[in-house]
UniProtKB/TrEMBL annotation:
Protein family membership: Belongs to the FAD-dependent glycerol-3-phosphate dehydrogenase family.
Record field: catalytic activity: a quinone + sn-glycerol 3-phosphate = dihydroxyacetone phosphate + a quinol
Protein known as: Glycerol-3-phosphate dehydrogenase
PROSITE patterns per the UniProt record, alphabetical: FAD_G3PDH_1, FAD_G3PDH_2
GO biological process: glycerol-3-phosphate metabolic process
One GO cellular component term: mitochondrion
């Protein structure tokens, strides 16, 4: 591996990441991507402790030494902004009042999609805005899957057809979806005859409203582990140099007394009740459904821009779906869309799309649960009862629109970036799939608005998250063979305990290449570590030194 001379900007970024530029080798990619990879591999993906992040943020408690960007909100978008800023060489801090991905970002339908129904609206309403949104979301869908392949994957989804007109209509519509995806297509859609549909999806009803099943059109979108993906974005940002702090609540914004410009935030550490100020050249509001609350801190006369929509989901047993095929009900009796998808050995069903109050812990209403159960009952040959429900959740979508709109289902999910007042920028709206480009848009605005000096342009389009480096689909086999936890028996003997395939697959999908560190923790939970196989590059570890 040859040594290279870095550009000045990359050299400065190397120093910011704690690397000596003369020792940085030629790696994959260039600029921020290669340096972030080096940082991840050199630290084994171990993120600095919370105490270290608090200490880093303490360096910016003076007006004379502000952060470049302070991001408020640790959901997908806020974490994405922190990652983008850090990889551009900016000093960035991220604060979240609860835990990362504790809100809407962990309460999604677990899909990475362009939006089939948005495409339908674009064609029928001749709405170029909707079409543009689908184009963009499909492009971003592939980027998310490529940058986190261990926790994101293509998922085939059936659209059942109970008339021959449905067959032609959905086949043509989903072929249009393929066409719009272009080079970002996952796989081509195709028609399944009724006999094969029932073989591959045995719980699907043979008749619906007196109409016989004529087949199904199968198309592909992406599926993800939303909460883990969010956490991994935040961890990658931390390893890239961002100061990230959870359980840190913004209680007020700091303003210049003369100009009125927002210059930082007053923060309370909810774990210790300590309070402190953080100064920044630009403050980014990425608080999702709570955006209006923060906007009114900046300007008490601000009009509400959030129209919250409730997305309720229920979890059913695994036998409702095959393990590798989903089902979309394209039009319920009131015109909404419901998905029935395999998820982590269970079945997730959702979602609703109704107006909602804004609360920290939203719960599905009884009418929403009844709607979901009624919507799927006509399409399944198994009677769905309340006793089948294993759990429920609801997420509040922060749709940015005129609050006087009566129906949120007709509102575009595109995002908006709004400069509320000097030094304060809000990013809201959008969807999980486009979190990365939303972060790029708001950061570009912040750079221009705050006259910041980034060391590079945006690199996150091709930036793998930390678990992606060295991950491969068969990593779970290596985990199961190489890491053998041991436990003490009742008589004090140390006995090996095999790692089963289900556990190994879960670790591989949830943590990617970092799963080996989790396996080591399990391996040494009751005794000192011992020599493990070098098959995936690990030797004897001192657990208390490496992971305390």
């Amino acid at each position: 591996m040859r040594r290279i001379v870095l550009p000045v900007s990359a050299a400065i970024l190397a120093i910011k990441l704690g690397l000596d530029e003369v020792n940085v080798m030629a790696k994959e990619g260039s600029g921020g991507v290669g340096l972030v990879k080096e940082k991840i591999l050199s630290t084994n993906g171990i993120v600095p402790s919370r105490v270290e992040h608090i200490s880093k943020l303490a360096d910016f408690c003076s007006l004379n030494k502000p952060l470049d960007v302070l991001v408020i909100g640790g959901g997908a978008t806020g974490s994405g902004v922190a990652l983008d800023a850090a990889t551009r060489g900016l000093n960035v801090g991220l604060v979240e009042k609860d835990d990362f991905s504790s809100g809407t970002s962990s309460r999604s339908t677990k899909l990475l999609h362009g939006g089939v129904r948005y495409l339908e609206k674009a064609f029928f309403n001749l709405d170029y805005g909707q079409l543009k949104l689908v184009f963009h979301a499909l492009e971003e869908r592939n980027r998310v899957i490529q940058n986190a392949p261990h926790m994101c994957h293509p998922l085939p989804t059936m659209t059942p057809c109970f008339t021959w007109f449905d067959v032609v209509y959905y086949w043509a519509g989903l072929k249009a979806y393929d066409l719009v995806a272009g080079s970002a297509i996952l796989q081509l859609s195709y028609y399944y005859p009724a006999k094969r549909v029932l073989r591959d999806f045995p719980t699907l009803a043979k008749e619906c409203d007196g109409r016989k099943l004529r087949g199904a059109v199968v198309y592909y979108d992406g599926q993800m582990n939303d909460s883990r993906l969010n956490v991994e974005i935040a961890c990658t940002a931390a390893l890239a140099g961002a100061s990230v702090l959870n359980h840190a609540e913004v209680t007020s914004l700091l303003k210049d007394k003369i100009s009125g410009r927002v210059i930082g935030a007053h923060i309370r550490d909810n774990l210790t009740d300590k309070e402190f100020d953080i100064y920044a050249k630009v403050v980014v509001n990425a608080t999702g459904p709570f955006s209006d609350t923060l906007r009114k801190m900046a300007n008490k006369d601000s009009a509400n821009i959030i129209s919250p929509a409730s997305g309720a989901h229920v979890i059913l047993p695994d036998y409702y779906t095959p393990k590798d095929m989903g089902l979309i009900i394209p039009k319920t009796k009131d015109g909404r869309v419901v998905f029935i998808l395999p998820w982590n050995g269970k079945t997730v069903v959702g979602t609703t799309d109704s107006t909602s109050a804004i609360t920290d812990l939203p719960k599905p209403r009884e009418d929403e649960i009844e709607f979901i159960l009624n919507a799927i009952s006509d399409y399944l040959n198994i009677k769905v009862g309340r006793s089948d429900i294993l759990s429920t959740w609801s997420g509040i979508r922060p749709l940015a629109t005129d609050p006087s709109a009566k129906s949120t289902s007709s509102i575009s999910r595109d995002h908006i970036v709004n400069v509320e007042c000097p030094g304060f920028i809000t990013i809201t709206g959008g969807k999980w799939t486009t979190y990365r480009s939303m972060a790029e848009d708001v950061l570009n605005t912040a750079i221009k608005h705050g006259d910041l000096s980034p060391l590079s342009t945006c690199v996150t389009a091709d930036l793998p998250l930390m678990g992606a480096y060295g991950w491969e689909p068969l990593l779970f086999v290596q985990l199961a063979r190489s890491y053998v936890p041991k436990k003490k028996t009742k008589d004090g003997k140390i006995m090996p305990e095999a790692m089963d395939t289900t556990t190994a697959k879960h670790l591989s999908c949830a943590y990617g290449s970092m799963a080996k560190h989790v396996a080591i923790i399990a391996q040494v939970r009751t005794f000192k570590p011992y020599l493990v196989s070098n098959e995936i590059g690990f030797k004897h570890y001192d657990f208390h030194t490496a992971y305390s």
